[in-house]
């Protein structure tokens, strides 16, 4: 996977004050990928050290008042062209910088105050369709013993749980809010495993409960609240789905967005609201663009066929009628399933970063789909699914 990285984050002394901002998590990511270092200000030939620059209106001014708008634009243009030639799909850019800032930049008063916006280079790079994040995102998604990656596995995907080197097991019955009556299908255990996969700290939940079994939205999302309590900041949801014909094929998929067609919401129930600051949750980028880009990069590097698309969550448990399949297609849905959407809402309400992976086990609306046929198809893709998840964990 090819990643563009601000040179100062890799320890190069290219900042305006002659310093660097070496960031361990970014250096680690760069060491595990093909990294291309950029500094648009160096590319522009600006002196270093020099007074700080900030964006003021449409211009970039040094603290001395000198107008460096043209130099910043030239540096941005030449670096963006190099990045496009290099073929990066991800850019990790220095936060707040007037060149590289993503989301927030200095406000033009040279006082350290920030305003929503992007640096000149980030503005230019956005046109290349590259996922842009700051070092803060890479750091926030970095797993540790204090912040393991939560992995919730759906129908037929539970085998991944056997890869965990266990440290502790937690019976779902001991999880706050998990219904006391819930039992797994025969041959399965409702038991979370805390441990590591290839050395990466994880908590794996090898099965879930569903609305269609009569549980409430708060109950089906109790595992997510539990993961958050354990300190998990990243959460991977894996689910079996139907592929909407004309939109996606049977096989693996990365979820890009969702439509909640269940008519339920954990944030509309008292037990779902308990740990949440506000129920009015921003659902833009609910599936982390950073994690999606990593997953895409891993799939391409490993030669695993993976599509991408929007997930529609339905109540179930019956499969879709032809009219429903047509409606889902018209809505731009690629994958339809009976889980995940409420869990994603809960995870976002708790500020967690979400990766959604699916195994489309059948075509939505196909005759003679059964739970057993879903499991059989899941088995066929289990190895690729495991390689994909392990590859993502390695890069985090
Ligand atoms: N529809 C809904 N959920 C599913 C399907 C489907 O076709 N296959 C597996 N889960």
TrEMBL record:
Domain of life: Bacteria
Nucleoside phosphorylase domain segment(s): 148-394
Catalytic reactions on record: a purine 2'-deoxy-D-ribonucleoside + phosphate = a purine nucleobase + 2-deoxy-alpha-D-ribose 1-phosphate
Gene3D superfamilies xref list: Nucleoside phosphorylase domain
Pathway annotation: Purine metabolism; purine nucleoside salvage
GO molecular function, one term: purine-nucleoside phosphorylase activity
EC number(s) recorded for this UniProt protein: 2.4.2.1
Catalytic class of the enzyme: transferase
Pfam families the UniProt entry points to: 2-thiour_desulf, PNP_UDP_1
GO cellular component: cytoplasm
Database matches in SUPFAM superfamilies: Purine and uridine phosphorylases
Record's keyword annotation contains Transferase: yes
UniProt KW keywords: Glycosyltransferase, Transferase
GO terms, biological process: nucleoside metabolic process
Functional description taken from the UniProt entry: The purine nucleoside phosphorylases catalyze the phosphorolytic breakdown of the N-glycosidic bond in the beta-(deoxy)ribonucleoside molecules, with the formation of the corresponding free purine bases and pentose-1-phosphate. Cleaves guanosine, inosine, 2'-deoxyguanosine and 2'-deoxyinosine.
Family under the similarity heading: Belongs to the PNP/MTAP phosphorylase family.
Protein name in the entry: purine-nucleoside phosphorylase
Species of provenance: Thermophilibacter provencensis
């Amino acid at each position: 996977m090819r990643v563009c990285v601000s040179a100062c984050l890799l320890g190069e002394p290219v900042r305006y004050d002659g310093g660097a901002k070496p960031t361990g998590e970014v250096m680690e990511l760069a060491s595990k990928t093909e990294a291309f270092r950029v500094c648009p200000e160096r590319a522009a030939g600006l002196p270093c050290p020099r007074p700080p620059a900030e964006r003021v209106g449409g211009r970039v001014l040094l603290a001395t008042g000198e107008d460096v708008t043209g130099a910043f634009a030239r540096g941005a243009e030449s670096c963006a062209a190099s990045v496009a030639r290099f073929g990066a799909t991800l850019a990790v850019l220095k936060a707040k910088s007037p060149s590289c800032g993503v989301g927030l930049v200095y406000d033009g008063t040279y006082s350290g105050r920030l305003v929503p916006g992007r640096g000149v280079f980030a503005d230019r790079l956005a046109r290349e369709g590259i996922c842009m994040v700051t070092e803060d995102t890479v750091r926030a998604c970095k797993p540790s013993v204090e912040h393991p990656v939560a992995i919730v596995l759906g129908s037929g995907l539970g085998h991944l749980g056997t890869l965990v080197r266990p440290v502790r097991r937690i019976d779902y019955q001991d999880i706050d809010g998990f219904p006391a009556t819930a039992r797994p299908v025969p041959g399965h255990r409702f038991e979370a495993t805390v441990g590591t996969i290839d050395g990466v700290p994880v908590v794996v939940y090898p099965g879930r409960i569903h609305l269609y079994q009569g549980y409430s939205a708060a109950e089906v999302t109790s595992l997510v609240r539990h993961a958050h309590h354990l300190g998990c900041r990243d959460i991977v949801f894996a689910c079996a789905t139907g592929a909407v014909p004309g939109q996606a094929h049977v096989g693996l998929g990365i979820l890009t967005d969702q439509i909640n067609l269940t008519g339920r919401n954990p944030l509309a129930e008292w037990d779902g609201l308990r740990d949440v600051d506000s129920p009015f949750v921003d659902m833009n980028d609910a599936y982390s663009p950073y994690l999606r880009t990593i997953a895409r990069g891993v799939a391409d590097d490993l030669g695993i066929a993976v599509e991408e698309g929007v997930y529609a969550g339905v109540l179930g448990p019956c499969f879709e009628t032809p009219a429903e399949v047509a409606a889902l297609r018209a809505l731009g849905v690629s994958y339809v399933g009976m889980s995940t959407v409420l869990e994603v809402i809960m995870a976002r309400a708790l500020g967690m970063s979400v990766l959604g992976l699916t195994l489309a086990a059948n075509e939505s609306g196909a005759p003679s789909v059964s739970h057993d046929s879903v499991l059989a198809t899941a088995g066929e893709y289990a190895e690729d699914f495991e390689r994909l998840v392990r590859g993502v964990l390695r890069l985090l």
